TrEMBL record, chains A, C:
<dbReference type="Pfam" id="PF02391">
    <property type="entry name" value="MoaE"/>
</dbReference>
<comment type="pathway">
    <text>Cofactor biosynthesis; molybdopterin biosynthesis.</text>
</comment>
<keyword id="KW-0808">Transferase</keyword>
<dbReference type="InterPro" id="IPR036563">
    <property type="entry name" value="MoaE_sf"/>
</dbReference>
<comment type="subunit">
    <text>Heterotetramer of 2 MoaD subunits and 2 MoaE subunits. Also stable as homodimer. The enzyme changes between these two forms during catalysis.</text>
</comment>
<dbReference type="InterPro" id="IPR003448">
    <property type="entry name" value="Mopterin_biosynth_MoaE"/>
</dbReference>
<dbReference type="GO" id="GO:0030366">
    <property type="term" value="F:molybdopterin synthase activity"/>
</dbReference>
<keyword id="KW-0501">Molybdenum cofactor biosynthesis</keyword>
<comment type="similarity">
    <text>Belongs to the MoaE family.</text>
</comment>
UniProtKB/TrEMBL annotation, chains B, D:
<dbReference type="GO" id="GO:0006777">
    <property type="term" value="P:Mo-molybdopterin cofactor biosynthetic process"/>
</dbReference>
<dbReference type="InterPro" id="IPR044672">
    <property type="entry name" value="MOCS2A"/>
</dbReference>
<dbReference type="GO" id="GO:0000166">
    <property type="term" value="F:nucleotide binding"/>
</dbReference>
<dbReference type="GO" id="GO:1990133">
    <property type="term" value="C:molybdopterin adenylyltransferase complex"/>
</dbReference>
<keyword id="KW-0547">Nucleotide-binding</keyword>
<protein>
    <recommendedName>
        <fullName>Molybdopterin synthase sulfur carrier subunit</fullName>
    </recommendedName>
</protein>
<dbReference type="InterPro" id="IPR012675">
    <property type="entry name" value="Beta-grasp_dom_sf"/>
</dbReference>
<comment type="similarity">
    <text>Belongs to the MoaD family.</text>
</comment>
<dbReference type="Pfam" id="PF02597">
    <property type="entry name" value="ThiS"/>
</dbReference>
């Protein structure tokens, strides 16, 4: 289990390769990457991500442990950035490995669902019109009920 | 006891952290104490349905006991990922 | 849509990075990678993958088009190797991009389910005990019914 | 019409490709023609439930028409991914 909360950028491809290459006996690797996307009409200049140092790491560890106990996994990687990010930058990634593909897929979706609404991160969008905190979506809360 | 604020709760309160020396029994009691301080706390705690709370870095309910709590944090619903 | 059927190895990390970086406006990228895994008791020396040149490309294109019409996707990448592979080598990868994570996840699972049982690839495992064609699993056929 | 074989079907038939000059009406008719050839075709086509067929590179049924077919392929269930 490798969990990192950091301000610095990370290299998605290198992390994905390193993760996949240390999975002896695992036949399936799934990754998810979240990217800062532009907003169309109100052009996004930056996204600021705030987090709760201390609780963030604990929350991510708990989510990863829950996933490990529910599915037959080789390993889990979570990297989540905070601070100021710009469009096209990668916010975070998760990677899961398993013998068969269903476990890796399910675990990655589970990690993302909980990371989205149960890990203490908050996003603020800075556009030319000002700054707005991103509001949590009902559908993200609803996504938790499927697990 | 340390009380932390994040995201727009922090912005409305105007600071990231308070030190509270009273001994509120529950989160709700703590909120009442804070609301009694200044209007900006009233603004921050106006709509509790828009707030989440963590006690000692674990998500909790508003009626959670603060008996052994060292750190309470208030923030809006999380938006990670 | 980028679909490649090739004998040569590919670099998962570089492909994943290149795919992610050309997704303007997409907030979510999901990748799946299939890896040759060792078999435990009967040590696997190699895996041979046979395919049906011509039909393979058509089948993969159809599966990718079906995914594009069902979900709101920015792009799809499929790379699948054939020939002789060794344990730890990557057999194939898919990548999907979308604005929101649910589309990329669902599309990647859909691609894998159909690629598994509807694209003309056949795997043969070479162990010290001999060579065996991998048998299709009932659960892989059953997985198609969820779509 | 070209008839292609893959995986263990190819191994049992002993070759990857046959050229068939008769005009079978359906896939099933073609299979009967092939079975009549040699025992190794009988072995390859012994259990049709273990076989899949593609007509002109699209998956088809055993009762599919071969009227306009230029290429038929027989193989076991696929195991990609």
């Amino acid at each position: 289990m490798d969990i990192r909360v950091q301000e610095a950028a990370f290299d998605f491809g290198s992390e994905a390769n390193a993760f996949a290459s240390r999975q002896a006996g695992m036949g399936a690797v799934v990754t998810f990457t979240g990217i800062v996307r532009d907003l169309g009409t109100a052009s996004l200049s930056a996204m600021e991500i705030e987090h709760y140092p201390g609780m963030t790491e604990k929350a991510l560890e708990k989510i990863a442990k829950d996933a490990s106990s529910r599915w037959n996994l080789g390993d889990i990687l979570i990297i989540h950035r905070y601070g100021r990010l710009h469009p096209q930058e990668m916010i975070m990634m998760v990677a899961t490995a398993s013998r068969h593909r269903a476990d890796a897929f399910q675990a990655a979706e589970f990690l993302m669902d909980f990371l989205k609404s149960r890990a203490p991160f908050w996003k603020k969008e800075l556009t030319r019109d000002g700054a707005d905190w991103v509001e949590a979506k009902d559908e993200d809360e609803a996504a938790l009920t499927r697990w | 006891m340390d009380v932390l604020y994040f995201a727009w709760v922090r912005e409305r309160v105007g600071r990231a952290k308070d030190r509270v020396d009273t001994n509120p029994a529950t989160v709700m009691d703590l909120i009442e104490d804070l609301r009694a301080r200044e209007p900006r706390y009233q603004a921050a705690f106006a709509d509790l349905s828009a707030l989440r709370v963590a006690v000692d870095q674990e998500l909790a309910d508003f009626n959670a006991s603060l008996k052994t709590a060292r750190e309470v944090a208030f923030f809006p619903p999380m938006t990670g990922g």
